């Protein structure tokens, strides 16, 4: 079949990526020789695709982010609380993207799971557009949160989420919102707080924060949604597990990151 048809139907290459490959000199080769998307390919041919990637943000080598998993196509890091993932007007060079540009200058920065600035934990970054596309809908995530004491057992929060009418940032539960489902399970109870494990069926902005506030148990330290900030000044939410197939070989990888120190200390009752 023609190379373009093969890449679309058998290799997971989108029409947009195919267009990019066509625009690159020798973006596609067969057995070491340039090939067009309309040329036929046969069993035994070796097809190589070249995706030119370059850092798009200002590198900042002073930043330090622990790396949990690193392969030719992917990187998983343990993002500290307080670090944004993308630059903005208030954060021009202190973000995860600035760190990545310094450590991996020849790779693209394709964030697969985005975390809020004050949410800590595992961030999966694809180094190529191909890997990012291959991982779409393939990543399983587990979050861990601290709420006020009192919640028990497990349950599901099924409540639509919409943007507050007078705010660009804040979300709320509202009948005309987008479908959102969060599953939770109590892992540990302490006199002053409860540790939850959470799994999302949907990925709405601030979903965990909005849903927990909706049922009366806002995250500790979450001033935006009514959480108690007397003990923690940053909301107690941590992405502690990711499971995904590595596009390079298809093998399922499971990576974890321990609960951050302030959340652990609060759970143990060391922070009052």
Write structural notes for this entry.
By secondary structure, the chain is an alpha+beta fold. Among the domains are: 3-49, no CATH class; 140-238, Pseudouridine synthase (2-Layer Sandwich), CATH 3.30.2350.10. The protein has 6 helices and 15 strands. It has helices spanning 3-10, 15-23, 96-103, 129-134, 207-214, 261-267, and strands at 28-30, 33-34, 47-49, 67-70, 74-79, 110-111, 120-126, 140-148, 154-158, 161-163, 171-173, 181-189, 193-200, 237-245, 252-256. Strands 4, 5, 6, 7, 8, 9, 12, 13, 14 and 15 form a 10-stranded mixed beta sheet that branches. It has a 3-stranded antiparallel beta sheet with strand order 2-1-3, with no helix packed on it. It is elongated. It starts with a helix and ends in a 5-residue tail after the last helix. The mean pLDDT is 92.
Give a short summary of the structure.
This protein has 272 residues and is of the alpha+beta class.
Proportion of beta-strand residues: 25-35%
Output the number of helix runs: 6
Structural class, by secondary structure, is alpha+beta
Average pLDDT level: 92
How would the global form be characterised? elongated
Which regions are unreliable across 5 or more consecutive residues at pLDDT < 50? Answer: none
Oligomer: single chain
């Amino acid at each position: 079949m023609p190379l373009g048809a093969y890449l679309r139907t058998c290799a997971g290459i989108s029409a947009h990526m195919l267009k990019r490959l066509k625009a690159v000199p020798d973006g596609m080769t067969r057995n070491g020789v340039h090939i067009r998307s309309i040329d036929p390919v046969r069993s035994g041919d070796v097809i190589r695709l070249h995706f030119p990637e370059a850092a798009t943000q200002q590198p900042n080598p002073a930043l330090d982010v622990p790396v949990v998993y690193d392969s030719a196509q992917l990187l998983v890091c343990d993002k500290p609380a307080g670090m944004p993932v993308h630059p903005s007007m208030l954060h021009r060079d202190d973000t995860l993207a600035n760190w990545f540009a310094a450590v991996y200058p020849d790779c693209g920065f394709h964030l697969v799971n985005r975390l809020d600035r004050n949410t800590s934990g595992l961030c999966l970054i694809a180094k190529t557009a191909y890997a990012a596309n291959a991982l779409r809908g393939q990543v399983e995530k587990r979050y861990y949160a601290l709420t006020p004491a009192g919640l028990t057992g497990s349950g599901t929060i099924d409540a639509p989420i919409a943007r507050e009418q007078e705010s660009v940032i804040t979300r709320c539960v509202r009948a005309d919102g987008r479908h959102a489902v969060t599953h939770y399970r109590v892992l540990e109870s302490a006199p002053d707080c409860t540790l939850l494990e959470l799994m999302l069926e949907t990925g709405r902005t601030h979903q965990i924060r909005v849903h927990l506030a909706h049922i009366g148990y806002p995250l500790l330290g979450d001033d935006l949604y009514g959480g108690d900030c007397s003990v923690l000044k940053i909301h107690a939410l941590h992405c502690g597990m990711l499971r995904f197939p590595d596009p390079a070989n298809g093998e399922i990888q499971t990576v974890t990151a321990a609960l951050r120190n302030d959340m652990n200390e609060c759970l143990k009752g060391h922070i009052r």
